[in-house]
Amino acid sequence: MITQEDVVLYIKNIPPTPGVVRQALTFAREGELIKAAKCAQEDPALRLYLKTLVNRPIYGFKNEVSDVGQIFGILGVAATQQTLYNYLLSLLTPKKWELFPLTNHQFYDLQASLSKEWENILIHLHIKDKEVYSAISLIPATIIVCDALFASKKKEVEQLRSVKALDYNTILKRLSGYDLFDLAAEIGKMWEMSDKTIALIRSASGTHQGLVGEQKMLAQWIHLLLFYLFSQSTYVSAGLNEFIDFQIDFVHDIYDSFSQVVPSI
Amino acid sequence: MRAVVKGRVGIFHLQGFLDGNNAPSFLTIDDIKATEALNIDMLLVSLKKVIFFNKNGLDVFVKLFTHIRTLKHISVGFCDYDHTKFKAINTFYAGEINFSLFKSEKIAELFVSSNKSDPKTILLYNEDPSQRSAMAIELFDYGHNPVIAQSFAEFETKKKTPELYYAIIEDTLLGYFGQKVATRVTGNAVIYTISNFLDAEIGNNFNIAYHTNSLNVGFRLFIFDAFKVVSMNIHALNFFTKLASSAAEYNAAICFVGMTFEKTPETFKNDLEDAGIMFFDTMDEILKNKELLQELGGGGGTTIKQQRILNKTLINELPHFIDATVSTLNMMTNAQAIKNSVSIQPLTIANPADQFASSIGFYGDLDGLIILIFPKTIAKKACELLIGEGEITDEEILDSLAEFVNIIGGRAKVLLSENKKRLDITLPRTYSDMDTLMEIARHKKGVQVDLSFNGEKFIFFLTR
Q: How far apart are alpha carbons A79 and B376 in whole angstroms?
């Protein structure tokens, strides 16, 4: 159905970071938000993306914010970096979603919700690490990769799933040795994200054994946050609730804390 | 979301959070229609991966349960939960639970018909004595050996030796249970348990689809355990005589065991005997008498007089069945299966040792039986996508082979529907030794296709 060669080919074709965004990211990593904004200003698509993103209801601004410098100022260093990665990811989104009945508008809403809720979680956990902050932006890459690899295999997967509750992540792992989180991590590598961020993305599948300390704790929070969002009506209808396997035992010990940070669905 | 069907059980596997806002999104109108069309005896919602639920969320599925139970008279309920979730559901629906609760999928499967014939020993406790008895009776009717703990203390003591039991039943509750006639399989015989006063309702309660499936996959002996029958009326009599006539087409035997005619007219017995039904006083009279068992068909196919032969229509569709098999194997393994030879002959297995087999029957515009015989290594490889790698027991491989052959049946159904041919498929059956398979297939002529996969041979056999 999907071979290791298909996956390797997919990884090969991940586009590199566009020059303007790469430069803006470099400035953002150094905390130079004014310089980052000047760079970002040069890319009209990025400008429009930033404007649309921060004016989504989840950010809660009463008046429209449109100036890139102002947007970066409001977001702060860590969130600016994260938002630039979100933009990069938006460049990978398909024109038409084939596997999931999803619109790009809904996908961007998911990105925004993940970013905002992740910010709340990191505040709760007293974590200020920019790399950890950015990690969440790569998680929706799993959905993009899944749609790209499985779009032409929809019928076959339906037949498999009629007899066994298998998720796409497990199917891919068993067929190719890679899972969707590995592929999201490959995208992170291509975009020169830090090793720490990439390791965190991989571990968010909840299936890796032997995780310890902060990496395990953050992976638990990302995993539960994903399923919190995938349980919302829009994403249930889009089929995202079923696309990866929820590791309920993996997140059990953080559930009570999670329910204090994130409002009920 | 669609229910996953395993044997006669359909299960919705929910994940994450479930409340009144998102629950309706799990079930579109198409999903409900697809659920209505399923050929199952039990519909469940698994809560294993649900980390949070409230009553409004569950209510959406409880409404579906009520609808499906009314429509199809099957068992419905929730499964796969821990003690906290069990208590929560009981609190939400205190005194008004009209669905069942099964602590695990494994426990739920004990309360439905299957093609497996090994009786299981099960430890059982419920503080409500009526629940205890109801569960014990159901388990017994499905051919298992329930060990009932009469007190919590006794249960706790017995629980300390879990290796003695296939399953330990607690935190389980039978709601309005399905009205279907309990069915179990012993060797090559299918046993139905009937009870009380038999009237026209037997037509609704008896699972005729399962019976037809059983005939199609090769069962030839059907025993009605009638010890608990008080009496029957003319409608039930008509039902059984018709059943006997349809069984005759397959040279199948129908027997009644333990039926007394104290409150039933003796003429009914004569009518039933005229229709070909035989009467016995005890199960052992049949099951422990090898000669009789052989003669009745429960020991194999030796007595079949009118062999159902291959016909042109079936052979014309052979490429579809082979395509379905090869493409399923390709899909599941990412490797090519190669067709080596095709011939019309009785099933011939060159090396019967270390082989597994599975079969699935189909009926409708065409009828017949697909049999697949694999070396164990190939069977394991073919099922890796379904079960994963690592240490896998023979039972797990056989269970997955059943799923595998089910997918083949499903694909064949789709391929043939493109030629406007409508098919229904039966429950799959698996065989861990070739002697049992040969008991049903020895005298059948069919199309044998020898295929190879990764250098090893396997057999596809299509027959009627």
A: 55
Chain A residue numbers with beta carbons less than 8 Å from the beta carbon of B15 are 227, 230-231, 241-242, 245-246
DSSP secondary structure letter of residue B443: T
The CA distance from B21 to the nearest CA of chain A, in Å, is 7
Domains of chain B, with CATH numbers?
Answer: 4-169 (3.30.750.24), 182-296 (3.30.750.24), 312-463 (3.40.1550.10)
Domain ranges of chain A: 4-16+95-261
What ipTM does this complex have? 0.86
pLDDT tens by residue, chain A, 265 residues: 888 888 888 887 877 788 888 899 899 988 899 999 999 988 888 999 888 888 888 788 788 888 899 999 988 888 898 889 888 888 888 888 988 899 988 988 898 889 889 999 999 999 988 888 888 888 888 888 888 888 888 888 888 888 888 898 898 888 888 888 888 888 888 888 888 889 999 999 998 888 889 999 999 999 999 999 999 999 999 989 988 899 999 999 999 999 989 876 5
Q: Which residue has the tokens 């008279």?
A: B73
**What is the three-class DSSP state of B307?**
coil
Partner-chain contact B26 A241, CB within 8 Å: yes
